[in-house]
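Lecture 7 notes: from sequence to structure.
We start with the chain below.
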Amino acid sequence: MGKGKAKAKQVKGKLKETAGDVTGNRRMEAEGRAEKVSGKAQDAAEKARKNLRDR
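Predicted C-alpha coordinates for the same chain:
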Protein backbone atom coordinates (compact mmCIF):
# COMPACT_ATOMS: atom_id res chain seq x y z
CA MET A 1 0.00 0.00 0.00
CA GLY A 2 1.34 3.41 -0.90
CA LYS A 3 1.80 6.38 1.34
CA GLY A 4 -1.17 8.16 -0.25
CA LYS A 5 -3.53 5.29 0.49
CA ALA A 6 -2.28 5.12 4.07
CA LYS A 7 -2.93 8.85 4.54
CA ALA A 8 -6.38 8.49 2.97
CA LYS A 9 -7.17 5.68 5.40
CA GLN A 10 -6.13 7.92 8.30
CA VAL A 11 -8.40 10.72 7.10
CA LYS A 12 -11.31 8.35 6.52
CA GLY A 13 -10.82 6.93 10.00
CA LYS A 14 -10.76 10.40 11.55
CA LEU A 15 -13.98 11.33 9.74
CA LYS A 16 -15.66 8.13 10.85
CA GLU A 17 -14.45 8.63 14.42
CA THR A 18 -15.78 12.21 14.47
CA ALA A 19 -19.12 11.18 12.95
CA GLY A 20 -19.49 8.45 15.56
CA ASP A 21 -18.70 10.92 18.32
CA VAL A 22 -21.21 13.49 17.05
CA THR A 23 -23.99 10.95 16.59
CA GLY A 24 -23.22 9.05 19.78
CA ASN A 25 -22.49 5.88 17.81
CA ARG A 26 -19.71 4.29 19.84
CA ARG A 27 -19.21 1.44 17.38
CA MET A 28 -18.60 3.83 14.47
CA GLU A 29 -16.29 5.88 16.66
CA ALA A 30 -14.26 2.78 17.57
CA GLU A 31 -14.13 1.61 13.95
CA GLY A 32 -12.87 5.03 12.90
CA ARG A 33 -10.22 5.02 15.60
CA ALA A 34 -9.07 1.55 14.51
CA GLU A 35 -8.96 2.58 10.85
CA LYS A 36 -6.94 5.69 11.72
CA VAL A 37 -4.41 3.63 13.69
CA SER A 38 -4.19 1.12 10.86
CA GLY A 39 -3.44 3.92 8.41
CA LYS A 40 -0.72 5.26 10.69
CA ALA A 41 0.86 1.80 10.92
CA GLN A 42 0.79 1.40 7.15
CA ASP A 43 2.34 4.85 6.76
CA ALA A 44 5.13 3.93 9.18
CA ALA A 45 5.74 0.65 7.33
CA GLU A 46 5.96 2.51 4.04
CA LYS A 47 8.49 4.96 5.53
CA ALA A 48 10.57 2.04 6.83
CA ARG A 49 10.51 0.36 3.40
CA LYS A 50 11.61 3.62 1.75
CA ASN A 51 14.45 4.05 4.24
CA LEU A 52 15.68 0.52 3.55
CA ARG A 53 15.58 1.06 -0.22
CA ASP A 54 17.49 4.34 0.03
CA ARG A 55 20.46 2.73 1.76
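Points to note: The two ends are 21 Å apart (CA to CA). The helical segments are 3-23, 26-53.
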